[in-house]
Design a protein that fits this description.
147 residues; alpha/beta; Rossmann fold; four-stranded parallel sheet; 4 strands
Length: 147
Amino acid sequence: MSQITFTDRVVAITGAGRGLGREHALDFARRGAAVLVNDLGGTGFEAGASNSAADEVVAEIRAAGGRAVANYDSVSTRSGGQAIIECAMDNFGRIDAVVNNAGFLRNKVFEDLGTPSSTTSSTCTSRRRSTSLSPPTVSCSVRGTGA
């Protein structure tokens, strides 16, 4: 079976600095895609912020001969979602796909989550908003490229 390729495609991946998002970014790049690596940095527990996670993934992709750019905007706001897509358009001239992977890790047993709190609320908000804010922006951009 031949491998699926993404040559000449551009993929924006949110939460791509660590974990599954990082693996998505590296795999898309191995398959020929130009990758926008979006990550706020920090600890993964909604604390701190740093460009290093996204920058390290970009460096790894480039070292392997791929094309990548880092982006540090938040997917939890409309303007952040727009900025992510604009960054892909500015750097690669198109956008073909978005992998909505961003979210905060809550390392708790399900039973220990209890009633909705600021902890569970921020986790749900980041995941829900990333899914609802990006598609309209991407749709307009993709239509403009004729993809």
